[in-house]
Amino acid sequence: MTWSGLGVTVTADLDDRNAGLARALWESLPYRSLQGHALVAGHHLFHVAPIHDLIHLDAAHRVDRRTVPDGTVFCSKLQHLGIKYGTLTEPMAAAPIGRVVPGDLDALAEAGRAVWESVYTSKKPVVAEVRRAGEMGGHRVPRLTAAAPEADALIGDVHAETERIWLDLPEELAEVHDGRVRSGAGSYGTVLTTMLFVNGETRPLGYNAYSGLVRAAHEGMPVRSLRHMARTLIAVPAEFLAYCGLEKLGAFTERVLEHLDRLSTRDDFIAVMSHMALYVNCLGGWNLHLFPWHLGEHLTAGGARR
Fold it and tell me: Cucumopine synthase C-terminal helical bundle domain: which residues (predicted)?
């Protein structure tokens, strides 16, 4: 794992605790992604990995992240690759797939501190590259296919947009954070309120709604029920986010809802929802990076400095 902008590289060894997840990661390499940092849990790095299967693959072995050694690498159903580099406070069960080699733990901590500064203060993006040791780097977002022509065309458009914004700031989010929303969202001309609600709606739409539909489809929920749940879960938040400035997300979701009844097979349903989940999770990663967290400096716990 390399953060070229920081001049830091670390090596991790994969293990067999969650062999299916480790295999999915291995087969996806190489790739690049916007590096994020936990904002609540503590000393933890994470980024969105372009791996559709992470959403639904089961973990054979789970641990409390607080209790495992620094350098432990995790894969998550939130489509994250995470690395613990210090103290964690959140009691979250997680799926370990390997560990950074002991000799690289100081470099990992250096990267962690620099990424925190990137996310919290400077807003200068840090890109992570994950590759097989000894091999060349690179990047791709895998594309799934659907048998129904309309569904496959939608997948193509969502995939193209996801690739376009994967490592480059989405213009719509930049406009939201600059207070330039065509609908006029933001009572009395406020900007922070709109940014806050965009953040609060984007993450669950990707993590829970679209990803949850993918998991439900893999777990055997009838296609008719999947369509009903899709209409229930995605329509309202996507409409609100479009009003708040994410008009492309709103347009893609309208097309999903329009074509729902034509998604007659489980595979087509999974392909469409998987691409929407990855797209929304990508938006969520950028939104977490852009959000002005430093505005809460005076609210640090006990008055302590960060």
Answer: 152-290
Question: Would residue 305 count as lying in a domain?
Answer: no
Assess if residue 306 is contained within a domain: no
98-137 exposure pattern, b = at least 16 Cβ within 10 A, e = fewer: bbbeeebbebbbbbbebbbebbbeebebbbbbbbeeeeee
* Domain total of the chain: 2
Q: How far apart are CA 78 and CA 157, in angstroms?
A: 23
**Tokens 């996310």 -> residue:** 119
Any residues with CB less than 8 A from the CB of 91 and at least 6 apart, and which? 64, 66
Sign of the CA dihedral running 196, 169, 22, 214? positive
Q: What is the CATH number of the domain that holds 32?
A: 2.40.100.20
The answer to whether position 304 is within a domain reads no
Contact present, 9 and 1 (Cβ < 8 Å): yes
Return per-residue pLDDT of the chain as tens, 306 residues.
999 999 999 999 999 999 999 999 999 999 999 999 999 999 999 999 999 999 999 999 999 999 999 999 999 999 999 999 999 999 989 999 999 999 999 999 999 999 999 999 999 999 999 999 999 999 999 999 999 999 999 999 999 999 999 999 999 999 999 999 999 999 999 999 999 999 999 999 999 999 999 999 999 999 999 999 999 999 999 999 999 999 999 999 999 999 999 998 999 999 999 999 999 999 999 999 999 998 877 777 665 554
Domain co-membership, 135 together with 157: no
**What residue numbers bound the domain in which 75 lies?**
2-140
